[in-house]
Design goal:
This protein folds into two domains: 1-46, no CATH class; 50-238, Rossmann fold. It has helices at 5-19, 40-46, 67-71, 87-97, 104-118, 134-140, 144-156, 179-187, 195-198, 214-225; strands spanning 78-80, 83-84, 126-129, 159-160, 165-167, 190-192, 203-210, 231-238. The longest helix is centred in the first third of the chain and has 15 residues, at 5-19. The protein has 243 residues and is of the alpha/beta class. The protein is globular, with a radius of gyration of 19 Å. Strands 1, 2, 3, 4, 7 and 8 form a six-stranded parallel β-sheet that branches. Strands 5-6 form a two-stranded antiparallel sheet. Bound molecules: zinc ion (ZN) (2 copies). One zinc ion (ZN) binds at residues 23, 25-26, 28, 38-39, 41-42.
Length: 243
């Protein structure tokens, strides 16, 4: 078989991309992948320093607690996310939601790092993920929150139980609803199994995106009703405070 240079180049690229030796974000080659999963250029753009809400961790316009938390304090004790939902991080999390399951490795690593650096890490944390309804999970093939939880569990050596929370009814997309509608929307959606496991425990609650925090808050509420102690809500990205 004759191979011209163009074919050869394509084969080489296919080889590297198949092996994953490319930036998860832009596709540039990274020879020490997976020690680094995104290239330096992308890293510089995706990581931002910004004022964060002391409660939910979302990017705020001013220092202190954001307006959403001021209006109604969420049921989780503290929220945090390594990335703001915009530009490259938004594109990456959307790819992760839509079939690119391997991206969970990148987000799990950054989420684990953030938890460690926050000083809130403890070997006693029990990991729980925000669930999907059975129908939706079947349709999608995987729950991205569960993928992240699994990754973080193995990186930090923490116990993860995917069956603690169940989502019993489908909720509408939070971002299109008013505050009141959002609260109603998630109020009765979540149910706690294995209450014995949860009682008296500090929980690390995992999700992919924090929009306003009302999903995390609804999960935290049922977990606390089941006797959970402190709840840290850790998501891969969070929406900045909207004015
Ligand atoms: Zn890159
Ligand atoms: Zn807040």
């Amino acid at each position: 078989m004759k191979l011209n240079f163009r074919d050869f180049g394509k084969k080489l690229r296919d080889f590297f991309s198949r092996r994953g030796y490319t930036c998860d974000c832009c596709g540039a080659e990274i020879f020490d992948y997976p020690n680094r999963r995104i290239c330096d250029d992308c890293d510089a753009l995706i990581v931002q320093e910004y004022p964060r809400c002391a409660k939910c961790g979302r990017k705020t316009v001013t220092q202190g607690v954001c307006l959403t938390c001021k209006r109604e304090l969420p049921s989780f004790d503290v929220g945090m996310s390594p990335f703001v939902y915009e530009g490259m991080s938004a594109a990456m999390i959307n790819r992760f939601k839509n079939r690119e399951r391997h991206l969970s490795a990148f987000f799990s690593e950054r989420m684990s790092k953030m938890l460690k650096e926050s000083g809130l890490f403890s070997q006693d944390l029990l990991i729980v993920c925000v669930p999907m309804t059975k129908d939706k999970r079947l349709k999608r093939g995987y729950n991205q929150a569960e993928e992240l939880a699994r990754g973080i569990s193995s990186l930090l050596g923490l116990t993860f139980d995917s069956e603690v929370l169940e989502k019993r009814k489908e909720t509408l997309e939070q971002k299109h609803l008013t505050k009141k509608e959002r609260q109603e929307n998630v109020k009765t959606a979540f149910f706690v199994h294995k209450r014995v496991l949860v009682r008296g425990r500090d929980i690390l609650l995992i999700d992919d995106i924090m929009t306003t925090g009302s999903t995390g808050s609804a999960c935290a509420r049922v977990l606390k009703n089941a006797g959970a102690n402190k709840i840290i809500f850790l998501t891969a990205v969070s929406l900045k405070e909207l004015k």
